Structure prediction request, 264 residues.
Amino acid sequence: MENGKIRFFAVSTAEKLPRGATLEATGSSGHGSVPRVDNAVVHLAAAVAKAGTWDTPARLNETTRVFFERLATISPPEEAAWYRNVLDPKVQEELKRKKPQYYSMVRTSVVPTMLKAGYKSNVIPPTAEATLDIRALPDEDLPKFREMLAGIINDPQVKVVEEDTSLSMPAAPPSKLGTEMFVALERAQQEVSPESITLPTMTTGATDSSFLRTRGVQAYGIGVPKTDEESRGVHGNDERIETRQLGLFVRYLFAAVTGVAAQP
Prediction:
């Protein structure tokens, strides 16, 4: 949404897989008055910096390819040029700073979120840990990815430890475009907001759709259109949406459901 006008309706046809990891650093402990070259906190800090600034490999799939192709048709010239050449390294640098959501959509992302070390200000701890929020593309080879991460860190004092995935969401293939439901969502958008377009999107978070997709269900996620600022506020202290869009969204949802349910 831009200047009160809806540019596009986002339909989630794929989502990234939440797969965390822990960085574990070890070293000798001792008094904080004596610097040590094997200080676990120092080694962890360096590892976190490398992981957090790593430009992971970028690639497109059916969802993101169509997303950027269609987005280019409704964007200002400078941005349209980005989306037509989205994998160009210079474009990726622009997206990382100006459109981080789009930067994340084309790669498995690594974001440090938690740190744990020490118990007293004058004691060098023997261990230090960092939690990484890893969001994987649907086709990511995660064991190989973790090996790449360990290579980027390149420190024998730091281990990359896989999280327990027994209770995690399953890896799920993207839903297809051009199905009866996706076409119905496009028709519903044209009915309630003809000046907009429908964009299939890669959700950078995770939803319960993954449980359906693993069973062959073509699942699609939809939501109230948001501004860029509202999208950046997800999970933040001031997360919000514009109430004036709720009525439009209800009309959109009703048109999509009846468009499929009313078919003979």
